[in-house]
Amino acid sequence: MAGATLKDVAREANVSIASASRAINGLDNVAEAVKVRVLEAAARLRYVPHGGARSLVTSRTNTIGVLLPDIYGEFFAEIIRGVDVAARARGLHLLVSGSHGNPDEAVRAMRAMGGRVDGLLVMSPFVESHDLAAILPLSLPVVTIASRIGSGQGSISVDNFGGGVTAVKHLLEQGCKRLAHISGPSHNFEAEERKRGFLSAVRQPSPVVFEGDFTEESGYRGAKAFLASGPLPDGIFVANDMMAVGCLLALSEAGVKVPQDVALVGFDDIPIARFTSPPLTTLRVGIFDLGRRGLELLVAALDEGGMQEHEGLVVTPELVLRDSSRHKTG
Predict the structure, then answer these.
(1) Parallel/antiparallel/unpaired status of strands 318-320 and 282-284
(2) Which residues does 198 contact at the CB level (< 8 Å), separation at least 6?
(3) Do residues 165 and 220 share a domain?
(4) Residue 103, preceding bond cis, omega within 30 degrees?
(5) Number of H helices, E strands in the chain
(6) Can you list the positions of beta strands (E) in 14-141?
(7) Is residue 58 pLDDT above 60, yes or no?
(8) pLDDT, average across residues 72-93
(9) What is the CATH number of the domain that holds 297?
(10) Measured between alpha carbons, how far is 29 from 6 in angstroms, rounded to an integer?
(11) Which pLDDT score is estimated for 193?
(12) 264 and 270 in contact (C-beta within 8 Å)?
């Protein structure tokens, strides 16, 4: 049996199809009594509005575009989960794409979303990303998360430099004297800021830095490089938790005890950080909340009819102390 149509609802409520449409779509130019009658009729008939038709009336697609550097791994899964939970609570749909760290792919993805979304959530922390500001759709509210895009619109950023400083101070407080760093890729602005924080706070000359790429494999290679090159560091700050997992494995394979021989600090606090052996000390940025708050900021802009320029929200990483950095003895 075919579902009820808008025409059926209008007939049931004894109003015109135009009045039924305005009432269903929540527009203001309809009397309250008519609205109540139409909604009651729709409920009785179990009428389900057609999304495409509704968007023509309201000029809304009820869809949010989400552009991330990648969609692989726990970090991005948590970002998407935060966005999705907040979107579902508001009856919104998501259109998700990954740029794979390529600004040209980011441009193509944003252009493909044009006309299909009501607003954009963009995460593009790569150094070249400031160029993307020039092609952001002026007609769409845009919120950036942990990005290098100077769009002058809504933004949520992380104090990565401060996080790097906090990690080093903690390792020094644990009695570590030979510090090393496994960084993220040099073309990543967040990775560079974490490394800059590390270098500004470390007290030793020429600290050892290994450049990784945010994957477990590169963290594993970084630890192997430290093991093969002279005195082993007694404290390692790793620029993200995924690399810290790989670093832990390499140290374990070499018979190096964490934290007795080497104290280890990661960054992000992805869900698995609690379940490594030993559990990983890390800098928590609230990944889920980054996504959730980004979506909420974007919805507020949609409700207000446009994004108001502001300084943006800055998240301060929080040190989460677990066993991997408890280096002190006695």
Answers:
(1) antiparallel
(2) 164, 165, 167, 168, 179, 181, 183, 207, 209, 237
(3) yes
(4) no
(5) 11, 12
(6) 63-68, 93-98, 119-122
(7) no
(8) 92
(9) 3.40.50.2300
(10) 18
(11) 96
(12) no
